[in-house]
Every structure is written in structure tokens, then in C-alpha cells.
Amino acid sequence: MDREEKDFLLEKIMIEYGNELVRLAFSYVKDAETAKDLVQNTFIKCYKNLDTFQFCFRRINHV
Fold first, then answer.
1. Count of CB atoms within 10 A of residue 9's CB?
2. Whole-model pTM above 0.90?
């Protein structure tokens, strides 16, 4: 997967799940900035491992 594809997929994931993940993180940490940082760190890890995650997404979508 090239960088453009990774960038596109990450943006799509962030738009679809970002706010919901921040709300979930906030429910645990009770601090908005900490919740945003946790989600940002999660998205960074996702980006670094997107090739693996993409395989998982494809399997989930085909089930």
C-alpha cells in the first residue's frame, strides 16, 4: 500500500470514528485534552500498522 492510499484510509477512519472514540476515551479519563491525545496516539499506531489493519477490515467487511 502506498502512502496516498494509507493517508486516504486513515482520513476516512478518523472522520468515521474519531468523535466517537474521543467520547469513549473521555468517559474513562474525564479530561477532554487527554481523551484527544489518547485517540491521536491510537490513530498514529493505526497509520503505522495500516497494512495489517486493512487486512482485518477486508475480512470483517466480507463476513
1. 17
2. no
